[in-house]
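Reopening this one. Same input as before:
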Amino acid sequence: MATDPFELYVMIAPVAAAFAGFGSLATGLGQRRGGDHAGVDAMRLGSMLSASLCATLLALLPATLDGFVLDDRLAVRASALIAVIAIIGLAPISVGRARRIRGLPGFSIGGLVANTACTMLALSAFALCVLDIPAGRIEALYLLGLVGLLGSSVVMFSRVIVSMLRPHNE
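Same output, byte for byte:
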């Protein structure tokens, strides 16, 4: 098992990319199948793709910045700052998606709460990483932030799979 934080970050990238790839495949399947949950599933896939692609890029960012900056900790903190800005910047889009699907068949308050919790975990971990609170734990906090984003992808992945396996009205 890798013990260097940079190796762990890079290991998360292909996992997150796999979720993004699944989202692309599921989009094609969902369009052919149709059904009464299509609008909700499309929003879930959008959320899953956003979280997955964000996690992929953020997992690779510290190692990339480390090539330009000589200080590993500065590269991680800069990456965490970029993550905080990205999450805050994407928040209005996510809130808008949730509002649009709130009354549609297939909407799940549990999925919304779980997704929000994962996103808040990621945001909190990245913010604490930027602030270096607690001192000396930035690598672990950054990893926790990535796991939060990956958790958001997992939540949306599970909701899409459940919906795809459920019989739909034609």
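So the earlier flakiness isn't reproducible anymore. For the record, The CA atoms of residues 84 and 123 lie 6 Å apart.
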